[in-house]
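Hi support team,

I submitted a single chain yesterday and got back a structure, but I'm not sure I'm reading the token output correctly. Could someone confirm the output below corresponds to the sequence I sent? I've pasted both exactly as they appear in my results page.

Thanks,
R.
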Amino acid sequence: MATLPLYLQDQTEEEIMQRMLNRVPLDIDKSEGSFIWDAQAPVAFVLAEAAIWAQQVLQRGFASTAFGEYLDLRVAEHGVIRRAAVAAHGIVRFTGTPGKAIPSGVGLATPADEISGESSIEYVTTAAVTLDGEGVGEAPIRAVEAGRTGNVPAGVITVMSTPISGIMAVANPEATTGGTDIESDESLLQRFYARVRNQGTSGNKAQYIQWAGEVPGVGAVQVQPLWQGPGTVGIYLLDADKRAANAEIVDAAQSYIDPTMDGQGEGMAPAGPIVTVMAAEEIPINISVQLTLASGASLAEVKTQIDNGVTAYLKQLAFADPLVRVTRIAAVLLDIPPIIDYANLTVNGASDTNIEINFGQVAVLGTVDVHE
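Hi R., thanks for writing in. Yes, this is the structure output for that exact sequence:
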């Protein structure tokens, strides 16, 4: 916080008490425990507390030091609203009696883990499905509770909250995606600064980025003017995990910016241009490497650390740096303590070629083949 104004400096209880005692005549007993001391001590305490409150008022009045609902109030003065949490979406595959009809609204869940105390994550189907002649059918699902906890790997949604006769098994063939927690103070403040410091006007590029960034679940935006010639704008989206935005996020952004896509200006976009909102194209980064590990190190545990390290590196690049550098991936390997050395490192089949990521694309971790 900036330097406090003079009237809030040197306002501790001890300093206030001393200034009060200094104003008492010298011929009056003002030693600790005297009547004067005991009468002034509570006043000094309350005045010091009031000075702390005044400092808090200053903090809540400026965006850089505000927090929570006070930051909400501050940024709302400029039309910036905290993004709400978003529920994860995905699909599940039912297996059972051919021709069996499964209604919308069926409850599903991941198994609870009694050992770790981890509770189930609940989902619900959002459309009806009828199993085909082989007894298989897929239905879209949505997490019951919004937030990142709804993003789970493939194959873990295996519990039917209410069993249905004729259904023998259920599982999600792909990971659920798009679940996003309510926007953090840090992210909200960054969007606020982007709004007030980089004014978007008249449908310029900055304004399209602002509009897309206001949609819950959006984690990053790229805007391509003249996407398919004059009068067209292409917008590419990532989610909060810096992966390609799912269909729900894309549809929400499209409806917000240009719902009719006919140049009539029915959304936030001005009349004239036709705006197309799209998910970014994911480019897998496949890694193969031979490792020399420290004694007692587990190859599986090291692979997990490589996955986490490379994923974190790729997130830094998303819509910011178009080059995936082999040397940076090598650095991730050498930063993992159990790895003594490595050899035969290849990235997407090449040992010394950086991977270029084009506009509208995002690099994501693909396969990781590690061996000794």
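A quick pointer for reading it: The chain has a mean pLDDT of 93. Let us know if anything else looks off.

Best,
Support desk
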